[in-house]
Every structure is written in structure tokens, then in C-alpha cells.
């Protein structure tokens, strides 16, 4: 019996330590949805990480369902101690998961040394906020976007505006350009600033945010309270009123139609709209060769400009120009058995080396300022100019409901059914009902 125990002990001592396994999950399937993402992980991330970590095996769990299904699966996994060590995640969801106790800050999971990662110095504060809550990073955004004014160079030129030097420095200069185009092309809709309920979050992000930031305000104040009454809100609503009601510089009907966003894309494609405020996706996808709204000879007929503040220096953080970004990225499973190793994998996925490699699979604006967009001068130029100016939506569980009220408020003004003052008053009541009076702020 003693001999058997000794032999067993010797066997245990001689047996190598068990190999460590890590896993990554994302809504990605090779040859299917987000196929480039799946291919990058399998062909670049996993081989590179395993080569540098002897005995570690990394697997990718490909998820083919929709976004809503993935959200439900992640909530179930994180609540039961299951799921991959690293998960693809929309920063939009972080507040809800944190409030439900389903996510932990990186520093809490890994330790304060994680905040010394070299990559943080290449990610702007606004971009870092995409995957943060209450000032603490819960993940790392992988890619992001920026918003700007897209312009038809041919329409500007035929209206007597030099497209090469086109850069409004105030709302009034933007409106003056629209008026000049309208005078030269009476049947046109020179300016598109998204409004209304049918466009959903595109109204809030491409329209309202791009205007409210120009007043020096945000949707929330420094304490995270929703601003429900302010001069900035009135200024934005009066801007909408000028564009769509008073001077008919925009296509008011399109803001109220179910397919209104596509109609605004068609207006731009068909040279009926000279200036359209949108995200870089408009260039990457909407107007790209072969798309439904392709702009023929795009690089000759399109240009871009920064969105100006209401007046120089009056924008968010005292800026002359403003923009806002959204983004998705990666979070660590709070139940991971190997938090340090999982962090090393997450950092490796977001290293310059690996994001440069991802550009070979799917070129777009990456979160790091040292990762250019290859063979795409437009995205490289716009990201380098606009990312230092950007901010992000508040990571707050009530944001979705408040955003819907913003859409209703803009629609009421654009449709002419309410004055800006009336629309703001209704917004105040609705948001107060959603978040409670203590979580609102009046600046008037």
C-alpha cells in the first residue's frame, strides 16, 4: 500500500502542469456575418498568441445569431459563470451589465498594472469612454467612427463655393452655404441634419449630438444628470427650425418617413443635397462603388468638412469643431479562471501589431492613433483630424429611453407641430418621468 502511494506521488510530481485554455467569443462566422473578424482571430490572433505563450490554447466560439440573441447569451453566461474569457461587446450595453453585476472593471479583475498597458497612451479619452462606465474601463474598443459634414463638391462649385476650401466655422456660415446652394438650385435640399423618430439613433447621433456639442453642452452634465432645459437645447431646436421649417433648406418630409434615411442618401447621390452630416460609414459603405447609393466618381465629386460649433470656441470643451464616436470592442468575462492571461490576450488583440494585421482583413478606423487605415487616404485623414475632438454617448442605463425622447423632440419641431419651447417642455417632462427629477438638470 505504501509502495502504491509512493508510486502515485511520483507520478503526480512528474506529470507536467495542465495546459491553459482560453476562449474568445464574438458575433462572427467565417464566410458569414463579420467573417473578416473571425478570419483575423483564427489566422492572426490565435497563432501569434499561442506562439508567444507555450502551453496555452486559444479557441474562437463563432456566434451566428443576431445582436439581441448575443446579448441574451452573454447575460446568461456572465450570470452563471459560463462563457468565453474574452467576449465581443457593444459599449452601449456596458451600463446595463454593470448595474446587473455582470461585468467588472479591468483594474479590479487584473490589478492596477493593467492600466499601465502601453496601448492606453494611443487611445484618446473620448475613445476610451466607449467601453467605460463611471470613469473605469471595462473593456477596449476595437474600432470606432467619427462624424462630419459630407459635401457634394460639384454642387458647391456650381453654387459659387470653392469645395477645396470649404470649411464653415460657425452654424451661420453653414447655413449661408446652404442658402447659396438653394439660390443656385431652387429644387434642392442643400442641408441634411438628421431628425425625427423613424431614423432612430441616427437622429440622435448624427443630428442632435452634432448640434448640441456645438453649443458647449452635452446630453448630460458633469454629474451625469440629464439636461432637460437649457439655452443649448433651444439653440439646437431653433437650428432645426431654420433648416426645415423657416427656410426649407432641408427635406422635412424625409425626416418623418419610415424610409427617410434612405431617402436622404438618395438625395445626396442624386445631387439634391449638398451637405449631409453623417458618420464615416457613409463613405465606407453607403456611397461606395457598387452600393445602392453609390456616388459616381465619388472621390472627385465628394469632399468633407468638420462640423463647426455654433460659434468659434463655443463647442464642447471650448472646441471650434465637434464630433462624436460610437464603437464596439471586447470585455473580459468576470468569471474567467485566468484573469492575468486573459488580459494579456485582450491587450495582444489590441496591440499595434494585431490591429495593423486586422487592417489586412477589414480596413477601417481603429481605436489606436498609431494604426492607420491602409490604402484609404480619406479614412486616414478624417480619423487623424477628428478623433482628437471626439466624445462618446453617456454610458447610462437610461440612455436608450432618453434618446427616443430626443428623436420625438426634434420631430415635433421639424414637423411644425410644436415650437422649440413647447418641444423642450415636453422633453423635460418625459425625461424626468424616465430618470427621476434628481437625475435631471435645468440650466435656465
Describe the structure.
This protein is an alpha/beta fold and 444 residues long. It is 43% helix and 14% strand. It is built from 18 helices and 15 strands. The chain has helices at 2-14, 35-52, 67-80, 94-99, 106-110, 125-128, 153-158, 171-184, 201-212, 231-246, 260-269, 281-286, 298-301, 339-349, 352-361, 377-386, 399-414, 420-435; strands spanning 20-26, 56-62, 86-90, 132-133, 136-137, 139-144, 147-152, 191-192, 226-229, 275-279, 302-305, 307-308, 321-322, 327-332, 440-442. The strands form five sheets. It has a five-stranded mixed β-sheet. Mean pLDDT is 91; it is low at 1-18. Belongs to the bacterial solute-binding protein 1 family.
Topology:
Blueprint: H1 2-14, E1 20-26, H2 35-52, E2 56-62, H3 67-80, E3 86-90, H4 94-99, H5 106-110, H6 125-128, E4 132-133, E5 136-137, E6 139-144, E7 147-152, H7 153-158, H8 171-184, E8 191-192, H9 201-212, E9 226-229, H10 231-246, H11 260-269, E10 275-279, H12 281-286, H13 298-301, E11 302-305, E12 307-308, E13 321-322, E14 327-332, H14 339-349, H15 352-361, H16 377-386, H17 399-414, H18 420-435, E15 440-442
Parallel strand pairs: 1-2, 1-3, 8-10, 9-15
Antiparallel strand pairs: 3-14, 4-5, 6-14, 7-10, 7-11, 12-13
